């Protein structure tokens, strides 16, 4: 756009829009603008109406103190920064079709489950498909970024990161945080030193989980307690509170006792977690996850309470959850770190080989005609709802673009 001017008549030259901000705060960060004869460096904020600044309480938010330009469709109120400075404003009401703005307002003021719900059946299949694919990739990128930050904190120790994520995935959704707390307090290198002895691995895990501190004198538990005392002194370990573990409304097969026993089996059988992951082989990964809580746990779900003998296998549904939430994001992370497109492709292949997730959000999308055929598509739909629909970011969504352009 040319011949830009503030509402008080000063010329505007946008030298740099800056960086688009996907998080909280101004819309564009670190822009560079010449207003009149002065060059300004700072942020740019955009609204339909200038009064949205007040309605969104930006004046009380220090992140907006360095905004240098307010871009709006209509200036219905003069805005001042916290220090009393009048905020330069650029209006676009004479550059944008008012009918388009009206349609956009109709979307963002809609109170249906998604803003475009009344029009979504008019969207072409190719736009739906490409949007879902894009959202899936965005979701993997977001998860990989979180993992990268944790990997940096671990000084690049990929095995420790996989160990943490695997335990978290086994505990989802009720005991995920407790499982992560358990393995965070028990370094993987300690497990590695004792992995050839399943009993010692179980002693370390159950002891560190605080489950051996509770009363109970059956032979297995007494033996574990004795072994853990030796190992905890050797490695200066302190158990976590057993009150962290939740059993209420869980199926017995998902009790934390069973998940910890299954984790012990995996750690005992797999010599190096990073080797299994780096292979990118779905067959190899599934083989590593094909475990049963055996021995004592074949006859128990909880301590000291016998049950009908049953091999407590890690079921298909649970393995799929781990593949979706642990394996695929880790492979995507490796693809980013090593600039290996092949690793991202393997992550995508794994997701495409798993059936669609089943939850209330995916069910609502199905009602609107968006049937996810696999986990890659359900991940994309979850991301679309979370980052675009719920945030009313229709202008950043290809589906929203098509609906607005058609009128």
Question: Summarize this, please?
Answer:
By secondary structure, this protein is α+β, with helices and mostly antiparallel strands. It is 48% helix and 12% strand.
Describe the structure.
Helix 3 packs across helix 15 and helix 7 packs antiparallel against helix 9. The protein is built from 16 helices and eleven strands. The mean pLDDT is 93. Strands 1, 2, 3, 4, 5, 6 and 7 form a seven-stranded mixed beta sheet that branches. It is 48% helix and 12% strand. Among the domains are: 93 residues, no CATH class; 159 residues, no CATH class. The chain has 407 residues and is an alpha+beta fold.
Produce the secondary structure layout.
Elements: E1 4-5, E2 11-16, E3 19-20, E4 28-35, E5 38-49, H1 52-55, E6 67-74, E7 89-91, H2 98-108, H3 125-153, H4 158-171, H5 176-184, H6 188-194, H7 198-208, H8 219-235, H9 256-269, H10 273-279, H11 282-289, E8 292-293, E9 300-302, E10 305-306, E11 312-313, H12 316-337, H13 341-352, H14 360-367, H15 375-389, H16 398-406
The biggest beta sheet is recorded as: 7 strands, mixed
Mean pLDDT: 93
Q: How many distinct beta strands?
A: 11
The fraction of residues assigned to DSSP E strands is: 5-15%
What is the tally of helical segments?
16
Helix content: 40-55%
What's the order of the H and E elements? EEEEEHEEHHHHHHHHHHEEEEHHHHH
Write down the overall geometry. elongated
User: What is Rg?
Assistant: 27 Å
| Low-confidence regions | none
SS-based class: alpha+beta
